[in-house]
Amino acid sequence: MTRADAGPNTYLAHAKVNLGLAVIALRGDGYHELETVMARVGLADELRIRVAETGGAGSDAVRLTVDVAPGLPGAGALGPAEDNLASRAAETYLRERRAADAGAPRVGVDLHLAKRIPVAAGLGGGSADAGAVLLALAELLPAGVDVAAVARSLGSDVPFLTTTAPAALARGRGERLAAVEVPRLHLVLANPGGQVSAAEAYANLVGFTPRLRFDKAVANLAAGAEPGWPNGLQPGVLRLLPGVRAVLGALREAGLKGALLSGSGPTCFGVARDAEHAGSVAAALAAARPDWWVMADRTA
Q1: Known active-site residue 16
Q2: Which of 11, 300, 45 has the alpha carbon at shortest distance from 139?
Q3: Structure confidence at residue 114 (pLDDT)
Q4: Which of 69, 167, 168, 291 has its CB 3.0 to 4.6 Å from that of 177, i.e. a possible disulfide?
Q5: How remote is the C-alpha of 297 from its chain's centroid?
């Protein structure tokens, strides 16, 4: 999360890409043991938050409005406001605040979300929104709430996206984070449309993958070679959404390195030589495939 220039209490909730994702084993709790490097990119939703004391004996209240960018992939997957991760994050924070201090003034929290990150697309958009809400409310309504615990309760990507770190190695379900250095990477992001939920992606897992060797991947990139980073979810997603294969092929044919599905997709990315190369590839892909969502971006 970073502050936006649009006005007070306005924040940017940045998307992430997965620079490799290893699915190592099935855990006893039914979740999978993961190892992934998550890196923030420039693409971001904008979140405006207004908090007002309501007084009286009523309950704390959260209201969410959403402005969706035209043609945003996955916009049809946006459910009702009460199911939105941003709303759930605010409601959970207020509930924990009330538990910590039953006498705290009643408040109303108005959230306005300008949605620019494709929905259910492997870029962590909803998780980034939740993380921005938690950090903002911890600042606006400090109450000793264990924000990290709330983040863990909301989803596997939320812990990282509730930090301000540019990148981290995430293990476990994504909650065990360690700082990692990621060089500035110029990327092309491409999404062919369609959705695959994380649950569907894991249900179609083809097999487990070895642990990441991220240092070696970075060294390979620096030498102009393929990084060799895996995504253990990619083979299963390719069976569910065959159109992803065409995206990966187009990124490779354009001379990008490390073409890979991000998370459970369907957004894919590739690494360009520099910003000019990323921009020219993105423009060419967008012209050739107007049915795809394409943009040039970079890691933080």
Answers
A1: yes
A2: 11
A3: 96
A4: 168
A5: 14
